[in-house]
Amino acid sequence: MKKIAFSILAAVLLMTLVLGSALAVTGDITTRDVKAYADPNFKKYVATIPAKTSVLVRAYGSYADIYVNGVECFISPSALTCGKKDYDYIGYATLKAGAKVYQRPSTTSKSVTTSSDIKVLVYAASDGLAMIRTTGKGVFGFVNAKNLTNLKAR
């Protein structure tokens, strides 16, 4: 039951993420055009992103997971100049069952309610809200910081 509830929450949050949820870092494509792919292995070419395009960056590593005009794609991290960091990583915590998870950093934005406790990554935020990321699917959302327990700082 918990697994099904988590899967439903992850699916709903993923849909809201694709519709425009705030992400951890903004950045720009460098001075050259960059090929974007549908997968992190760079096998399925999607499009070329023009130089100096602003993007939302979700993850770094051997690839950069980015959003351009609401579409997720993958590029080489060397193609980015990272700009303003909106949220800093704090650590892990447990999000309590019954907590509302908001699409944006506002309690008036769309939300879903958790049906069970969920392990999350926690990022700093303002106005009593914390940006979280689920550990399984990597889905972002915003929660009242009072609904986080067992915080383990990085």
Topology as H/E string?
HEEEEEEEEEEEEEE
Number of helices: 1
CATH C-level label of the largest domain? Mainly Beta
Question: What Rg do the Cα atoms give?
Answer: 16 Å
CATH architecture of the largest domain: Roll
Write down the CATH topology of the largest domain: SH3 type barrels
Structure overview:
This protein has 154 residues and is mostly beta strands. It folds into two domains: 2-19 and 87-153, SH3 type barrels (Roll); 25-85, SH3 Domains (SH3 type barrels, Roll), CATH 2.30.30.40. The protein has one helix at residues 2-18, and strands at 25-29, 34-37, 45-49, 54-59, 64-68, 71-75, 80-85, 89-95, 100-102, 111-113, 118-123, 129-134, 140-144, 148-153. A hairpin with a 2-residue loop joins strand 5 and strand 6. It starts with a helix and ends with a strand. Residues 1-24 have low confidence and may be disordered.
Fold topology:
Blueprint: H1 2-18, E1 25-29, E2 34-37, E3 45-49, E4 54-59, E5 64-68, E6 71-75, E7 80-85, E8 89-95, E9 100-102, E10 111-113, E11 118-123, E12 129-134, E13 140-144, E14 148-153
Antiparallel strand pairs: 1-4, 1-7, 2-3, 4-5, 5-6, 8-11, 8-14, 9-10, 11-12, 12-13
Short description:
This protein is mainly β and 154 residues long.
Characteristics:
154 residues; mainly beta; SH3 type barrels; 2 domains; 5-stranded antiparallel beta sheet; 1 helix; 11% helix; elongated; disordered N terminus
